Amino acid sequence: MSIATIDVHTVVLFVHILAVVVGFGVVFTYPLLDAYARRANVVDLVALHRFQVFLTSRLIQPALLVILVAGIYLATDGERGYSLGDPWISAAFAIVIVIGGLAGAIIGPTEKKLLALAQRELRQGQKPSDAYEREAIKLARFGGLASLLIVVALFLMVTKPGA
């Protein structure tokens, strides 16, 4: 493909894929980072949760918006013959909306709670409390669900079942 043949659809597709990679790639490292921080000390847990809170608000949620807007453009531009009514597109949009809801209603607030608990426990010289562990389990479960949904959406986008 020569540079002269690159069209708007291709550029928007690139932006869409880039937003997925940049916005969601990091969340697949969270279980490894959590395991590392737990082996070290509470200071590392504070840093981990500060990092998560920052990335959720400044990277992941904005990336979700770019993914959604670019996806709507790609599904409605008519150039490739796809439409919002295609089941694989509808399912992917539903997944993006669910992930956005999880991030805003559960994941983000839980990350903030974990940060506050880790900071308090660091000041008190404690190991992670039961309250911390409950919130950590909640974050792991909902974070795992969000990661699974990302993989399902990616599968739908690549395979386009029924198209």
Percent helix:
over 70%
Strand content: under 5%
Describe the global form. elongated
> In oligomeric terms, what are we looking at?
single chain
Task: Please state the average pLDDT score.
Answer: 92
* N-to-C SSE string, H for helix and E for strand: HHHHH
Number of helices: 5
Question: Which class do the helix and strand fractions yield?
Answer: mainly alpha
**How many extended strands?**
0
Radius of gyration: 19 Å
Distance between the termini: 24 Å
**Count of individual domains:** 1
- Low-pLDDT stretches are none
Instruction: Summarize the biggest pleated sheet.
Output: none
Q: Would you give an account of this structure?
A:
The protein has 163 residues and is mainly alpha-helical. Helices cover 80% and strands 0% of the residues. The chain is built from 5 helices and no strands. The chain has helices spanning 8-24, 30-40, 42-76, 87-123, 130-159.
Q: What distinguishing features does this structure have?
A:
163 residues; mainly alpha; 5 helices
Layout of strands and helices, then pairs:
Elements: H1 8-24, H2 30-40, H3 42-76, H4 87-123, H5 130-159
Helix pairs in contact: 1-3, 2-3, 3-4, 4-5
Please provide a brief summary of the model.
It is built from five helices and no strands. The chain is mainly α. The protein has one domain (3-156).
